[in-house]
From TrEMBL:
A Pfam family hit: Pro_CA
Organism: Syntrophus gentianae
Phylogenetic placement of the source organism: Bacteria, Pseudomonadati, Thermodesulfobacteriota, Syntrophia, Syntrophales
EC number: 4.2.1.1
Catalytic activity: hydrogencarbonate + H(+) = CO2 + H2O
One Gene Ontology term from the biological process aspect of the record: carbon utilization
Keyword terms, alphabetized: Lyase, Metal-binding, Signal, Zinc
Protein name, as recorded: carbonic anhydrase
Length: 238
């Protein structure tokens, strides 16, 4: 009986400790503004070829992170091989929670992943990152609303195509811009890339009651940005 009580007591201790750990788990280690600054500082290191993340990818960091993680930023970006967030933001193990899918489009699985990191890991920042000359955007424009021949690629194109009206408006307004003047098709693709990232960021709270609640409470900040394949710079959309 005594043994049973002791086991019961121990279970209670673990239960209480577990609850305490669970409730502290979701609290952010830094603010969203600090997290954003860390990403932008890391991008500056990358652009200037002064990367430091190698020092946070060693055995000591791996061991320290083996049983828990507290990433301070969530990055939803494209699967494009030239846009790896850990490299372009100069980040090591445990720093950023990355979701990559062609065209950086959300679906329930993607949004669920963002919810998990925001709610359970306490990441205060969500960044939707589009990039220059995105193949998924190009494929969407080329499909002209018709099937690409794959219902799976069609699902990506359909999401991106929802931003075509906004991109058309933006493209009309930015014709004087040097980059937009390079070629009409290429210019429109860039405007669609921008509109896609902005709309996805703006719609995350509409698609997720959890993210809506966290945003309302000031616990997460959602931003949209674009990566330049030529100079490596990440630029935030206002
Ligand atoms: Zn892409």
């Amino acid at each position: 009986m005594k043994r049973k009580l002791t086991l019961f007591g121990l279970s209670l201790v673990f239960l209480v400790t577990g609850i305490a750990l669970a409730s502290s788990h979701g609290s952010p280690s830094i603010s969203a503004e600090e997290a954003l600054q860390k990403l932008m500082d890391g991008n500056k290191h990358y652009v200037e070829n002064k990367m430091t993340s190698q020092s946070t990818c060693d055995t000591a960091h791996r061991t320290a992170l083996a049983h828990s993680q507290k990433p301070y930023a969530i990055v939803l970006t494209c699967s494009d091989s030239r846009v790896p967030p850990e490299i372009i933001f100069d980040k090591g193990l445990g720093e950023i929670f990355v979701i990559r899918v062609a065209g950086n489009v959300p679906d329930p699985v993607v949004i669920g992943s963002i919810e998990y990191a925001a709610e359970h890991l306490g990441s205060p920042l969500v960044m939707v990152l589009g990039h220059e000359r995105c193949g998924a955007v190009k494929a969407t424009i080329e499909a002209k609303g018709k099937s690409t021949g794959s219902k799976n690629i069609d699902a990506i194109a359909k999401t991106i195509a929802a931003s075509i009206p906004d991109a058309t408006k933006a493209c009309d307004a930015c014709k004087a811009d040097k980059k937009c003047a390079e070629g009409k098709a290429a210019a429109f693709a860039e405007c669609l890339t921008d509109a896609n990232a902005k709309n996805i960021a703006a719609n995350l709270t509409k698609s997720s009651p959890i993210l809506k609640h966290l945003a309302k409470e000031g616990k997460i900040k959602i931003v949209a940005a674009k990566y330049d394949l030529d100079d490596g710079l990440v630029t935030l959309f206002k």
